[in-house]
Task: inverse folding
């Protein structure tokens, strides 16, 4: 299973980040949650501080391109295997930075990847 950091996590069940966290857990993946506001979903705290999580396989982004620059160095410092750019988060500049650091940048939908057993 792939330990996943959800960036843009939310307590709002209508948000895709919430749905992704739920589906990741249902599929047996361990999750960490990072959001703008503190909260808790599925027994996991939504952190508001950028912690140095260990063993992150995948970062799944639910933050738009204009708000991503503040996360560039942080995400690279976690050394994930890949970063999933969900619809609306595509960012060629950041994707190139990730690839140059040996991190796979994948434009995809986490929910679709899970639903089609491609996660």
Result:
């Amino acid at each position: 299973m792939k330990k996943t950091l959800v960036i843009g996590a939310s307590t709002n069940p209508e948000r895709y980040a919430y749905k992704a966290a739920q589906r990741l857990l249902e599929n047996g993946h361990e999750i960490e949650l990072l959001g703008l506001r503190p909260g808790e979903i599925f027994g996991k705290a939504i952190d508001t501080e950028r912690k140095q999580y260990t063993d992150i396989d995948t970062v799944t982004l639910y933050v738009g391109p204009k708000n991503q620059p503040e996360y560039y160095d942080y995400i690279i410092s976690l050394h994930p295997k890949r970063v999933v750019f969900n619809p609306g988060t595509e960012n060629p500049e950041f994707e190139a930075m990730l690839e140059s650091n040996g991190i796979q940048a994948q434009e995809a939908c986490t929910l679709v990847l899970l639903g089609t057993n491609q996660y």
Notes: The mean pLDDT is 97.
